[in-house]
Write a structure and sequence with these properties.
alpha+beta; four-stranded antiparallel β-sheet; binds protoporphyrin IX containing FE
Length: about 350
């Protein structure tokens, strides 16, 4: 039976050996938005061009747009839950928002493929964008992050993954899409390694070597795994994380790039609140005594189908459709015609 639902980008692909994360801003000079709009229709072809040369290397790219970029490039309607990254916390423990219009999450089993695709993508974008952050991540031993713990264990698996990450009927014009939050964390590794393994395990909530979850009788309510376990209406809500280690030992830079996908930004925002402010307030994530978020961004990831159609979209379409109050009614893409604007 044919399935007409829009195809998601490679959000749910398994974790790879290598990744490049690129965050870029779009030039506000005349004509540059047109370059980016037209590029969005080339993304799939670029991935094919590079990936076909190494068919077993699992090259993929997920491309997302920030809230301001969406308005600039594509206008209304806007994905229902797309908004700028919301800062939480205060003082030294703060999830900061940093500039970012486009996110590229490029993955493969070999870094050369990630590198080639990133180069091709940026080459096409030219001076229409400025790269404000670029991180080359690697798989650290048995899927460990930079603090030495296995990362990703409690990710959703199999058929449940799409249910947690891919937009469905709740926002039909954007079905097949997803939301992604990224944060680049730098660790004070000397201080972290000054802790005993037992102290680190209480902070994460799992055993370091075996990755087994600590028993509830000893796991603190402020452990990372406790604070990031959340429920809605009695049901656990999961997100999909593809974190990667990165760093430059010579510069004493040791980091974990956090990337979390979800069907709405809400669960990730709730987890951030629990980590940075605490649940209850004050009962915060002690991992943050050793880790500092230096970037923060929220992006909408269109489906493959929508990404392909976006170049035809006119952000300045006249607001002349009486059926869609407050929206730019005259959209250029059939599937979105007349869809009400979401805030
Ligand atoms: C310094 C950055 C971070 C590091 C080093 C880190 C590390 C870890 C580790 C080692 C685990 C346990 C294994 C696993 O289930 O994956 C974990 C679990 C988890 N983390 Fe993080 N994490 C970081 C940031 C975040 C952020 C910012 C979020 C969400 C906003 C988050 C959400 C989660 C979730 C949902 C789990 C699974 C909890 C469970 O069900 O037990 N993490 N993280």
């Amino acid at each position: 039976m044919p399935d007409n639902s829009p195809e998601p980008q490679a959000v749910c692909n398994p974790i790879s050996r290598s990744a490049i994360f690129i965050v870029a801003t779009i030039s506000r000079h005349a004509g540059k938005a047109d370059v980016v709009r037209s590029w969005s229709g080339d993304v799939a072809a670029l991935v094919r061009a590079v990936g076909t040369r190494a068919p077993t290397a699992n090259l993929s790219c997920v491309c997302g747009f920030g809230a301001d970029a969406w308005d600039l490039l594509f206008g209304a309607p806007r994905p229902a839950s797309l908004h700028p990254f919301r800062e939480v916390g205060s003082g030294d423990r703060r999830a900061i928002a940093t500039p970012g219009d486009i996110l590229l999450h490029i993955r493969a089993d070999h870094m050369d493929l990630c590198f080639e695709l990133a180069s091709q993508m940026l080459n096409k974008l030219g001076d229409a964008v400025t790269v404000v952050d670029e991180v080359h991540g690697f798989r650290y031993f048995d899927l460990r992050d930079m603090v030495g713990f296995v990362d990703g264990t409690e990710n959703p698996t199999g058929k449940h993954t799409a249910g947690y990450t891919i937009i469905g009927e709740e926002d039909q014009a954007f079905a097949g899409g997803s939301y992604v939050i990224v944060q680049k964390y730098l660790h004070d590794l000397d201080a972290w390694n000054g802790l005993t393994v037992e102290q680190q395990e209480l902070i994460i909530g799992r055993e370091k070597l075996s990755d087994v979850e600590l028993d509830d009788s000893i796991k603190p309510s402020c452990s990372h795994s406790s604070l990031t376990t959340i429920e809605e209406n009695g049901q656990e809500v999961k997100i999909l994380r593809h974190n990667m280690a990165f760093g430059r030992p010579g510069a004493k830079e040791f980091g974990t790039y956090f990337i979390g996908y979800a069907r709405t930004p809400k669960p990730i925002e709730q987890m951030l609140e629990n980590m940075f402010v605490g649940r209850p307030p004050g009962n915060y994530d002690r991992l943050l005594d050793y880790s500092r978020a230096v970037t923060g961004g929220l992006f909408f990831v269109p489906s493959v189908d929508l990404l392909d159609e976006l170049p035809d979209r006119n952000p300045d379409a006249a607001n002349d459709d009486p059926q869609t109050p407050g929206s730019s009614g005259a959209l250029n893409i059939g599937s979105l015609k007349g869809t009400p604007r979401h805030e």
